[in-house]
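Let's practice the habit of predicting before peeking. Look at the sequence and jot down your guess about where helices and strands might fall. Then scroll down.
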Amino acid sequence: MALLRFFGRPAVELAIGLLVLVSVALTLVEFTWLAEPTDARDQLLLARIELINDLITLLFGVELSLRYLAAPSKRRFFREYWLDILAVLPLFRVFRAARVVRLLRLARLLRLFGVASRLSSHFPYIMRRGFVEFAFVCGMLALTVLFGTGAMMYFEGGRRGAKPGGESGPEAGGTSGTPRQAADASVADVDQPSPGEAAFTLERSFWFSVYSLLAGEPIPAPPDTLGGRVVAVFVMFMGLTIFAMLTGTVSAFMVDRLQSEGHSVDWEHLHGHIIVCGWNSKAEIIVREYRASHVSETPIAVIAQLDHQPQLPPDAHRQAWFLNDDFTRVTALQKAGIDRASTCIILSDMSQGRSEQDADARTILAALTVEKLNPHVYTCAELLNGDYASHLQMGHVNDYVVSGEYSAYMLAQAAMNRGLVEVITELMTYQRGNGFYRLALPAAWHGKTFQEAFETLKRRHNVILVGVQPRGGKMQVNPAQHTFAAGDDVVVISEKEVKL
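Done guessing? Here is the structure:
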């Protein structure tokens, strides 16, 4: 699973694509430019290119071997990578001309479109999450262009203009004045543009501000006046600042999105995993309980509409992966692998201001959809109102929990039996002390009574037998009379899971 997550990272796919381009380029050089080396220098260059290409081919061979070992379906592996396997075969140098088969590696570049498609799917989320930030950046862009346009018209609008061809001047043959007048005229010409330059009209000032803002340099040319140059520098500085803000905002939301969704998960390779629909403080407890239990290595797929990455322990992120989607949608459940899952837990979703009635309606809809998509999955749903439990029963949902009722039961027990809450709290968690464990009864125990099994388990394993569930029957807690048979499961209290 770790190899699958590693090869599923976009950075790994991009690195492989870069190696493919290098290998193909070297192969083309080898068979065209250096096909017939004329001197020792070309022969040495050809030998180095062949060595580099062989090393890249060896790297691809190792990569494909690791992919083969990690692939759950070997048939699917050969169906997807048969061209890549052919491209690795020239490593054995049977025929030098066969090395041209490396060009088949170009087909791997098609997978980069899939990477780009996965990354581009995050942009609607980024626009939704960062609407305020993007609106602020767009407002700064508009204000900068507006200020630049007005300021350039003020400082440069009267400084530039096309001189009519009939204007007189010293170079046009006009009458020359005194030397002092000639000197004043020459100083004034420093700030005057040449006759062919256009004036800073409204349109020209607008496009000057836009181009300078985006390009980071005054386009088409620096202004003549000191005020205009200051404005141009300010516009360019704002362009750099706004670009940095935009890049930082997009990067932050992209990283948050990728982390919260678990983009590196190959959902199609999940089997026997647990699906948790919805996310709240109860979901965090569920993840911690699974990590502390005997099924700690079981992958957990969470389907929830999240605004930020949940705060979990660092090692928990290797077990729990997040799919940012609506768990009532069939496509979301199918993507999370509901047809291959072993357990599905549906939590009451009170996010986005939903009422208790709406939350229970979503729970029922999701539970019935899960049972329709995979009747063999064990489904447990949380309800806020026990009156809707009949809908789950008619839909053959395995179990349901009415969260409000259980808290009331706990309060009543705490009031009537002081100290009992501590016992229940210890038994309800795997993170400390004793807990409940459901075990399959071995054949050696068939024919024994509940009393005999109770005494034997306590004496041999320090385990307390609590209940038994016959095959196809209901759970019996501390039955007065029961003889074990094939297919029976028992529930025990123990510090850890035991093997009978």
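How did you do? The first helix runs from residue 2 to 7.
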